[in-house]
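This follows on from our talk about sequence and fold. Go ahead and set the record down below:
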Amino acid sequence: MSSVNKVILIGRAGKAAEVREVGSDKKASFSLATSESYKNRNDEWVENTEWHNIEAWGRLADIAAKYVAKGLTIYVEGSIRSEKYKDKDGNERTATKIRAAAIQLLDKKAAAAGNAIDDDDMPE
């Protein structure tokens, strides 16, 4: 049996993409907020917002750094990655990230700039 690790998100960027060198490669990071609204048992509207940490590598990192800005509506396709680390007190923690394989800017202003971003040279 095979398995699939694929995520598709549409949300708003919480900040502009930040790029940094990681070894001989580049990594862009930004947050993405997704929201859902529903009526609870009391017939009141409730909005639930989830924040996702997005990372893009290589050429996709350069493009994300150029076009991803706070507040833009963005489509992200990628996979879920979990990383274990120790915090400053030595406690083991897990960080969950989305490694982007494709990013598309959905705002009209961004669309005019040529918004389809895709990359096949993702690090393993």
About this structure: Confidence is low (pLDDT under 50) at residues 119-124. DSSP finds two helices and seven strands in the chain.
